[in-house]
Amino acid sequence: MSKPRILSGIQTTGNLHLGNYLGAIRNWVEMQSDHECFLFMADLHAVTVPHDPAVLAENTFKVAATYIACGIDPAQSTIFIQSQLPEHSELAWLFNCVTPLGWLERMIQFKEKAVKQGDNVSIGLMDYPVLQAADILLYEPDSVPVGEDQKQHLELTRDIAARVNFQFGSEEKPVLKIPEPLIRKAGARVMSLTDGTKKMSKSDPSDQSRIDLTDDPQAITKKIKRAKTDPARGLEFDNPERPECNNLLSLYQLLSNQSKEAVAAECKEMGWGQFKPLLAETTVEALRPIQEKYHDLMSDRAYLNQVLADGKTKAQAIAAPTLAKVKAAMGFVQ
Ligand code: AMP
Ligand code: TRP
């Protein structure tokens, strides 16, 4: 029997942070031995907000190197660049013509990002989830492992697939396979270090709010030392009045690979002065091997280029027939 297939991606905007690692990449690594994995760099999504052409390509290599440094094995998984497969943009166009505008106007991420862009909101920003639906449905995955913030986009993807099937397929012969979202509870929402009610994000103007996977030990220690806390004594999970406490404990739990119960017991009596150095050291040690591998990979461009060329070929072998199937169902000249 063939392995279940998963597909996921990360935008190539800025450096990846602990949220990307714990909410997404780490889950892919765990799944890769018993799943067929398609993992890509969403560089077409990166240009939905104003971008700097001088760093776009470099950011794409950085994300690819991060996947591999975190444990994605190019011999097992397919790693590719979204913009190198025209199938993504072409299927997005076809989906544009079946997706009601009202569905996109409801997207929370669009509304949040549009406010930040002011007068400069592109059609691309609104269309972002339609491209994401194309990214996903081209590969007919069984499930899509992402962080909590992507839930609405995955629901939209399912709605678009169902609509295409309804309009151009039949019940016995659906055009597209409808995938399941896969959102793990642990790590699905890593919060900002400066505000435990906001998610850790690449777009937060404050560098202090996130730990980038490439931060050096001094930077990590300083950020954790300055992280927002509260005056209550003792540390605990899941107290809604203590979002920062829950977030920092969860980071410690995930990065030290312990159970929640073990961490709750270990930290019950601790104060911040004792806990923060422990979290800082744990984070530095967890990221050290990833950073070493990352720097090696970034200095071996020939190897990265080879991985991405192989990935493109393997991805296209799946994406091209799916696109052809949709075009045929919609009635285009064969
Ligand atoms: P992005 O950086 O927005 O392209 O996100 C890439 C992946 O990381 C997606 O699966 C997101 O859901 C996940 N992700 C981003 N930020 C966080 C966060 N703060 N906590 C958990 N997962 C996140
Ligand atoms: N929108 C996703 C994010 O911000 C990135 C993404 C683009 C994606 N296309 C995708 C994730 C397809 C999963 C599947 O995280």
Automatic annotation (TrEMBL):
UniProt keyword terms in alphabetical order: Aminoacyl-tRNA synthetase, ATP-binding, Cytoplasm, Ligase, Nucleotide-binding, Protein biosynthesis
Motif ('HIGH' region): 12-20
Biological process according to GO: tryptophanyl-tRNA aminoacylation
Annotated Basic and acidic residues bias: 196-213, 227-239
Subcellular location: Cytoplasm
Motif ('KMSKS' region): 199-203
Family annotation (InterPro entries): aa-tRNA-synth_Ic (IPR002305), Rossmann-like_a/b/a_fold (IPR014729), Trp-tRNA-ligase (IPR002306), Trp-tRNA-ligase_bac-type (IPR024109), Trp-tRNA_synthetase (IPR050203)
Gene3D superfamilies named in the record: HUPs (3.40.50.620), Tyrosyl-Transfer RNA Synthetase (1.10.240.10)
Record's keyword annotation contains Cell inner membrane: no
Documented EC number(s): 6.1.1.2
Catalytic reaction(s) noted: tRNA(Trp) + L-tryptophan + ATP = L-tryptophyl-tRNA(Trp) + AMP + diphosphate + H(+)
GO cellular component term, pick one: cytoplasm
Similarity section: Belongs to the class-I aminoacyl-tRNA synthetase family.
Stated role: Catalyzes the attachment of tryptophan to tRNA(Trp).
Record note on quaternary structure: Homodimer.
Alphabetized NCBIfam families for the sequence: trpS
Protein name per the record: Tryptophan--tRNA ligase
